[in-house]
Fold:
Amino acid sequence: MKNAILFVICVVGLLAGCRQTDKTIPGNLILRQVNAHLKATASDQLISIIEVGTYECNDASERLDLRKLQAAGLITYDVKRYVWWEKSKITKKRPYEVTHGYYFTWTETKYRNVQVDDYSFCDHYIVDVSLTPAGQELVLEKLPAIKANVDDDMIQPLVDDSLYAWNQTDLSEDWPVIPNPFLPAPKEEDATKTQAAPKETKSAQTKAPEVARIDSLQYKAYNSLSLDSRKVILNAGSRCAVKARNIQRIDNGIVTANAEVIVETMKVTDAGRILLGIENGEKTLEEVTMVYYQDKGWILNTLNDF
Structure:
C-alpha cells in the first residue's frame, strides 16, 4: 500500500515537474523565434539604395557618398557642373504713404505693384554613375520579401463561383420607364436637338518675361542634356539576435515572459558602411514578450515589432 502511495506521489510530482519545465523558457528558444521573426519580416537583411546612370545630383552630401563609393571600388563616378546667372523682372508689392485731410491730416500706408530686377544663381551638378564588378556583386534583384503571416487553421477553401447555375444565367430585371404624368412630354425635336458647344474665346496672352543669362552657353548645354538613371538595391549587411538576457517569467493567470534581446550587425559591406554608417558588431537592445499557450508552448508576441 505504501509503495502504491509513493508511486502515485512520484507520478504527480513528475507531472507537475513536467508542466513547470514546459513553462520554463530557455534563452535559445527566444533567440530562435526572434531570428525567425526578423527573417519573416525581412528585418534581418540590411539594404541601401543608390541611383546609377546619368542624373542631376545637387546635394553635396550625396555626391560625397558617391565619391566614397568610388574610393571603395564599388562604382565609377564623374560629375560636371553647369552654372550661370539669370536676371529677370518680377512684380513685388511696395508700400507708399498717402496723406489725407486738410486741417487735420493723417497718413495711410498703401501698396502698389512695381517691376524690380531679380537675380538667380543657377547651379546644377550632373553625375554619371556606373557599377563596377565589385559593386555588381552586391546588387539584390529585388527588395527582401516579407513573409505572409498565414494561420494554417484559418485557410479558407478555394471556390470558383462561376460554376454555380445562378452565376451562369442573366438574372437582371428589365422594366419600362414610367414618365411623370404631371409634367408635359418633351417635344421630339427638343429631345434630339444637341446643344452647340460654346466657342472658345482666346484669352489675352501674357508675354513671358525676358531673362538675361550669363553664361548662356552653360544654360544651353544644361538644357540639351539627356538624363537616364535607375535605382539599384545593394546588400549592406545583415543582423541577428545573439543573446537573450534578463528573462522574467510572469504567471498571473496568463503565463508570459519578458526579456531583453541583443541584436548584432554582421557581414557589413562597404555600401553599408558608407550609405548607412554601420559596422560589424554594432548592437541594439530590444525588449520582447513571450506568451505561453497550452497547445503551442512559448510563442513570440509579434506585436512588439522591431
